[in-house]
Amino acid sequence: MSFEFGVYTFGDLTHDPHNGRPIGAKQRLEEIVAAAKLAEEAGLDVFGLGEHHTPNFAVTAPPVVLAAIAQHTKRIKLTSATTVLSTADPVRLFEDFATLDLLSDGRAELIAGRGAMAFLDTYRIFGYELADYDALFEEKIGLLLQINNNEQLSWNGRFRPELIDAGIAPRPLGGKLPLWIGVGRTPESAERAGRLGTGLSFAQLTGDTNRLKPLAEAYRAAGKAAGYTPDQLPIAVCGHGYIARTSQQALDEYFPYHANYFEHIMQKRNPADRLTREQFELSTGANEALAVGSPEQIVEKILYQHERIGHNRYILQLDIGGVPFAKVARSIELLATEVMPAVRRELSRTTAGKETGGPLR
């Protein structure tokens, strides 16, 4: 599998930490479409939209926004990142993304998850109980997979009305949608993705990359036991980041926005909880999740991750906390023109070395 690069966003709404100017939903949505166009023009492979259902996010309907993006792009893959499947109807969700797939000439993908623990208002808004957090997902991912594999089916479960010889349409251009499961920290979720034969998408926002290694191993072991081949078990890493010409520039420019995100979006407003500059810089280390630095540093971080988990896709969220579009655009360009080719060259060289028995990195 080729190594893919992309960017994603949740469209958070906050104010500029430097001038206090608010950022509205219309502006954010327009910038999201512009970012997707730029990502394609720069040569990236994937553009993703996450979803939250609170007033401080512009993206509550990813397939709608992705459909708008589809009309301005031709090649880039369009994915959710992540769909909160536990509070959605799998039938309607499949219909939405199959429609997107047709409108985009076969570019739609879907990453399904249970929802981030910090944003669980979704359950209350859509009338679900947090006590059913895992049961909801287990049932709904099973139904979604059945729909993806069958044009007509009968089904019965606990959380939605039964289906009796139901035809689910339209169908995706290629017959099936590429499905991934979003995973945070639990081995059970990684094993589930392997058992079901979906892709595995890590949400690595904080912490040491090494904690992902046993999860990746559990995923591949479960997939192998279920009869899936390695090429049917792709792994993606998604996280926050920012790229500038130099490390110091990246740290200086990005920190105010990163701190702004944690204060206003993550509600870390108690002075004791606020992120300090020292904590921020420590979280950008080579083995840490936060990808902030020069292109050379981001290359090293991705290669460090790849040595441990062997992922096939790397997707960055570059726009949290009110980062201006011009700075997001520069980061996208650096990711595409400097990080992406350097990583691919190194991985190609390493693969060639393994095949010939030559020196490895």
TrEMBL record:
SUPFAM superfamilies: Bacterial luciferase-like (SSF51679). Gene3D superfamilies: Luciferase-like domain. The keyword Oxidoreductase applies. Pfam families: Bac_luciferase. GO terms for cellular component: cytosol. One of its GO terms (molecular function) is monooxygenase activity. Keywords: Monooxygenase, Oxidoreductase. Transmembrane segments: none annotated. Residues 4-308 form the Luciferase-like domain. This is Luciferase. It comes from Paenibacillus radicis.
